[in-house]
Amino acid sequence: MRPKPGFQLALLVLLATLASAEADRHATLKFQVLKHHNGKPVRNASVIMHSVRKSGKQAKGGLQLKTNSEGKTYYDGIPYGKLRVQVLAEGFQTYGEDYEIDQPEMEIVVKLKRPQDQYTIYGEKPAAKPEDKPAPPEDKPEKKDPQ
Length: 147
Description:
Blueprint: H1 5-23, E1 26-35, E2 46-51, E3 63-66, E4 72-79, E5 81-88, E6 95-101, E7 105-112
């Protein structure tokens, strides 16, 4: 017994609709930005998001969010797929990571580190800037003993 042509067409339309709905899915992303050394929130940090193409290159455009006093921010409507997240805050190292967005709601916790000391391969520490050096002692004429 063969299925009727109308049934086949309805099944095909249903499958196409489900596939289209899967491709158009969006997620809610919640971010929390904390200080790595003590776990306290980082307020006013910039959270920058860019979609990533299948080639691995960052797509043009993007979105920037700012954290509140609790170090939190969110965005509703991020399409499923690969997303590049960068977090910048004054006095901290820049954070960057790619995430696969594949759930209706995701929470991303970022712990920012303080900047590290920089080292050089050229030997000793770089010379101090002129304004950092102490002033040289003033030349005073030597007093001679009147003998």
